[in-house]
Design brief:
It is built from 16 helices and 20 strands. With 567 residues, it is α/β, with parallel strands linked by helices.
Length: 567
């Protein structure tokens, strides 16, 4: 299918990504104002984003006896201080409120005999969340003056004089090129998966920790638009059950299972209990010949056996099937664990757009919320909901202040130029002759480069500066080849853009890894040239694309005071 027609839409707010943060932002905007909203979702909002398959717990909640500052302190310690205290605090103050709202919308939250939520540790509550995304989607679909456009792939922002004017994209089913003009834009596209070679080849090669359709589109568009990014070097590597990629937290927290090596020795306390240290300890024990590594479940009760089998049947059936097929329950065998390939995801680490407390980026009128927003790790589902709300509230506040200006003739001329460039790029991919390499081949080459030279599984997540220089050189070569790929239909055009997005993110990531000249988070940022923590780097490592070059920016740590963009 060719680009058959063009459509221009005018709206007050464009939300890119109909996932967790995007949906909640729409609910908040319509509750607080009469602003018109368009939601652009490249899948279908009923089952899109990180919540597509559901979740069995709320991992960011202020349980009885705790306060928002406790959550800030926990996240700060886990990230070794490189966080935005102001973002963490404003998020934490809304965690319980957005949870209550979700319950009102129909989310089932488990309660004890006293009617209190069933807590799992200091920050978690149990839910029956298989249908959490349909609940959010249904609530959005019932709103008036909100247009949801499913299967619309947004590719580029419309920016003039560092101010957002909207975005361009194409529809994968009807071949329409969209130009959406908006006074405010919320980027809620999620983080970036698929940059590195996964540890499951063959049949399971696309089995990964994070949704494979979250390609880093929001990061890439922001980078190209000159938005400031932060902390890409704080990668996220999930510790998972081997082969099934099932979460380990349910076992570790649910039955108190400790991390042990092949000799049965508890090693987790030797390396530390932060998220990165749990991964690092597992890697090191294997490197030292003490592996395989496990979560010790042998000896748990039959009741705990049943709880684990049921829990995983709901969220990761492959793990329950593995237990059943082996003929041994969790109490009869320990669960082998390993790290995944690295990801860039601001819901777990601090990677993403550099934003102020209203979640506005350094591009005026452009907001970021959820996994795509930086500075605020450990946000999970409720944190993404909270950030969607905070961005929405700031937009509404600015609308009411009446500071928005209509586009002038000069702006229109500039937008027409951008429009022509974007459309010609779409047509180029669609009309290109058979390329030397397919999108899939280039993607595999990219993953191999990142795996071997930029701290992937093959190198035990370690890297040095010479390897990073090679990685950058090879990614640049792949970018040139990616411009010559061809798309037989609109679906393939989406894949071409997803490759482009991933390569853009790879280059920024490499620059960040290179410029934090220390090892602050083992495994997440294991720099062999600088193996120790250096207090000179008690700073944010930020970046901005200027004239085709990535400029690094080092900023001082922001505590709980309110931060606003000043330069």
């Amino acid at each position: 299918m060719e680009i058959t027609k063009q459509q221009i839409i005018h709206t007050d707010v464009l939300i890119i990504g109909g996932g967790t943060a995007g949906c909640y932002a729409a609910l908040t905007i319509r509750e607080k104002s009469d602003a018109k909203i368009v939601i652009a979702e490249k899948a279908n909002i009923k089952r899109s984003g990180c919540l597509a398959a559901g979740v069995n717990a709320i991992n960011a909640y202020i349980v009885k006896g705790r306060k928002p500052q406790d959550y800030v302190d926990y996240a700060r310690k886990d990230a070794d201080e490189i966080v935005r205290g102001d973002l963490l605090l404003t998020m934490s103050e809304h965690l319980n409120e957005v949870t209550s709202k979700m319950e009102q919308l129909g989310l089932v939250i488990l309660k004890d005999e006293n009617g209190d939520y069933v807590a799992r540790g200091n920050r978690n509550i149990k839910i029956n969340g298989e249908n959490i995304k349909p609940i959010l989607a249904d609530a959005v679909n019932q709103l008036d003056n909100v247009e949801v456009i499913n299967h619309l792939n947004i590719t580029d922002y419309i920016v003039e004089d560092n101010t957002i004017k909207g975005a361009f994209g194409f529809h994968m089913e009807n071949g329409t090129a969209y130009e959406i003009r908006a006074k405010k834009v919320l980027c809620a596209t999620g983080g970036s998966a698929g940059l590195y070679k996964p540890n499951n080849p063959g049949f399971s090669r696309h089995k990964m920790w994070y949704p494979p359709f979250n390609t880093g589109a929001g990061y890439a568009m922001g980078i190209l638009a000159g938005a400031e990014m932060t902390s890409f070097e704080m990668r996220f590597i999930a510790l998972r059950c081997k082969d099934t990629i099932a979460p380990t937290g349910t076992i570790a927290q649910g039955v108190g299972a400790k991390q042990i090596n092949a000799a049965g020795e508890i090693y987790e306390t030797k390396y530390g209990l932060t998220t990165s240290e749990r991964v690092y300890g597992t890697v090191r024990e294997n490197q030292l010949g003490h592996g395989p590594c496990y979560l010790k479940t042998t000896g748990i009760t039959k009741e705990q056996d049943e709880d684990l089998l049921k829990a995983y049947l709901n969220m990761a059936p492959s793990q329950t099937l593995k237990w059943i097929e082996s003929g041994k329950s969790p109490s009869e065998q320990d669960v082998e664990i390993q790290g995944t390939e690295p990801y860039i995801v601001g819901g777990h680490t601090a990677s993403g757009y550099w934003v102020n407390t209203g979640r506005e980026t350094t591009v005026k009128g452009l907001y970021a919320a959820g996994d795509v927003a930086g500075g605020c790790p450990q946000k999970y589902v409720t944190g993404a909901l909270a950030e969607g709300k905070l961005a929405a509230l700031d937009m509404v506040k600015q609308f009411k202040a009446g500071t928005l200006k209509e586009a002038d003739i000069q702006t229109e001329t500039e937008i027409k130029v951008q429009e022509g460039e974007i459309l010609s790029q779409y047509e180029k991919f669609r009309n290109e002759d058979a390329p030397a390499f397919s999108v899939e081949e280039l993607e595999e080459a990219m993953q191999k480069v990142m795996d071997e030279y930029a701290g992937g599984i093959a190198s035990n997540y370690q890297f040095n500066e010479k390897q990073l220089a090679l990685a950058d050189e090879k990614i640049l070569q792949l970018q040139a080849l990616a411009e010559k790929t061809a798309a037989a239909d609109m679906h393939e055009l989406m894949f071409a853009y997803e490759l482009r997005e991933r390569l853009i993110v790879c280059r920024s990531l490499i620059a960040h890894l290179k410029n934090r000249k220390e090892t602050r988070w083992h495994s997440f940022n294991e720099n062999l040239d600088h193996p120790e923590t250096d207090e000179k780097f008690y700073k944010y490592v930020n970046s901005k694309l200027e004239n085709g070059e990535i400029r690094m920016i080092f900023r001082d740590i922001v505590k709980e005071d309110t931060y606003e963009h000043t330069n």
